[in-house]
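Technical appendix A lists one of the benchmark inputs used to test multi-chain prediction within the project. The record comprises two sequence entries:
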Amino acid sequence: MKALARLDLTDAATFPSRRVEEWKYSDLKRFLREAPELSGTAVVGAPGPFYDLGGDAIVFANGRPVGVKDYIASGDQTLRLRFISDATGTGHTASARIVARPGARLLLLETHEGKGSAYVAHNKVEIDVASDAEVTRIVLTDEPDDAISVAEAEVKLEAGGRYRQIIVATGAKLQRLETRLRHEAEGADARVDGIYLLGGSRHADLTSVIDHVGPNGTTSQLIKGVVRDEARGVFQGKILVQKGADDTDARMGHHGLITSERGEIDVKPELIIYADEVQCAHGATVGTLDESALFYMQQRGISADEARALLTQAFLIEVVDRIEHEGAREVVREWLTARL
Amino acid sequence: MLKINNLHVSVADKPILKGLTLDVPAGEVHAVMGPNGAGKSTLGYSLSGRPGYEVTDGSASWNGIDLLDIEPAERAAAGLFLSFQYPIEIPGVPAMTFIRTALNAQKRARGEDEVSAPAFLKLVKAASQSLKMDFDMLKRPLNVGFSGGEKKRMEILQMALLEPSLLILDETDSGLDIDALRIVADGVNAMRSPERSMLVITHYQRLLDYIKPDRVHVLAGGRIVASGGPELAHELEAEGYDKFLPEAA
């Protein structure tokens, strides 16, 4: 296995294939053999799903920042981070940097909004959570089914920092949403949740690497996904507990539903522990919708499609309910319900 | 009127119903009794359209509507309600949400106006009171963690709110103590009307002391082998099903 170079859309040699362990379920090289031409400019259209929650905005259109691309939160703030793609057959890269100063509380509402077709988007965000700061990151993706999209988040948590994340992925031809999070210092608390809801021949890959360096940290992760048709969902969750990261409490759960003959879910949970005195657990299940429940609902007059949607929503909503911010929770709930 | 003619049903290619013929006129309550394995539950499931219950011959219609030709949800909208012997748990869907979704789906299918949330709340409160149910139970996911008796009451509550015209009760007495049985039977009896037909499927005569049938049929070997008045149920209770079993026929 060769070392993994950082992905660079201008250099095809950095495109990983499935022979790279971290990309074995999401073979980027298969869909992208050569570096794409650079996308032209794009117009920022509709205001995005989180508009009503207000706050500040960072907007990238085809990788180009419309205004600032860095943000420092020092109080109680809301930031909408919008990655907009409107391109056909071309590629673009964006990178943003977010800092939450000590004691700050930031609600980060990130959207990947795609139009056009067959584009390649590579969106990166670095998030520093200072001591006793709190960042809630909510990610919604809405991209064409022939797009390729790779999003990378690099999160650093200082002492007592609090981080809450939920990604709601609806896939693309190949969509990968990667989170790398480090508990740099003592007593940080992370929640790294996710949902994937996929139909057609869409592919979504939620990959996370949580690295406990400081002691006494907690990580909680709940991922739920539903695949229909010929879609494919991937979850790779790695939790590392380094030597000295004693009293770490890390829990990971993945639950998937396949509602078609040809849907596929690939799950790879990994716990790697070098410290003593840790509490770690993971659980993973993949199943199908309960046929007897579906019949029971239909017997009461609910159509087969509505019964499936109701059971799917009931299955996924547990993750949405973990969003503490009420306004954001309602937006995500409605956004998801509209896509069942 | 429910008309079942020469109904043949197979499950996993095994014939279970073998030419069942039965009519239930409007306003009447008919009991279907029979030994275990006679095909009693199969009758309820095949009339309501459960996948896996394959009708290989015969017909079944309700008020002139060919039941076997339409989807399970359409059969429900046409008035058919099957009270399950073992009601299914629906995790994550509160009972009240479930019933309102079902009621409005049926109303939409019939081209009627939907019931608003406040109007529905009023209906549910009244119906749950008359069944002596704790209203908080309706906020919990449907049937999840409910006792056998609670599940049966929830079935009757749904029946009262959905107001079906053709009721099929599959072993409704199983798992009920005598007090719960009385409450459930009162709920069913309150639904009796000149337009409604009921098919009460039961192994034991006990339920028929509370829900008095107009006619009693014996189902054995996949067919109706005897029919009579309410006194037939008492005969069966005293003598058992032996004389109706295929070996003795």
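Residues 1-24+48-69 of chain B form one domain. The mean pLDDT of chain B is 93. Comparable benchmark entries are summarised in Table A2.
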